[in-house]
Write a structure and sequence with these properties.
Blueprint: H1 6-11, E1 12-17, E2 21-26, E3 33-38, H2 51-71, E4 76-80, E5 91-96, H3 118-131, E6 137-138
Antiparallel strand pairs: 1-2, 1-6, 2-3, 3-5, 4-5
Organism: Halopseudomonas sabulinigri
Keywords: Hydrolase
GO molecular function: hydrolase activity
Amino acid sequence: MFELHPQLDKDCITVGDFPLCRLLLSNDSHYPWFVLVPRREGVTEVFELDEADQLQLQRESIHLSRVIYDAFDADKLNVAALGNMVSQLHVHHIVRYRNDAAWPAPVWGKFPATRYDSAAVQAVLEPLREALSHGFKFAESIL
């Protein structure tokens, strides 16, 4: 049975579910930062997914990348699966701007996270509501 790693649960807001992955919003308002987590138990690496899930993860990651790149008018999009601190397979999708606080460095550990308030969460998710409507189910707590 799939369970979200406690650190991801603590650091993120559940947005909803694609067919394979849970979509999270990192609770750090410095950047539009989303995380895809395949809902598969005990998976730490992409190659541990079966072939169908590997392809589905790729589809969902590419779709999310296009949506957030356009929705947030990104200068660059950082997509990475590191797992050094949290071994559960998860893929970060971070919208970057040439004028963001960490540019051009990586965002990890650069600044303490500034958490979203509920109005700011809704504002970040608003441009995604229509773009993610097909094949995506928003979490009840987000609606």
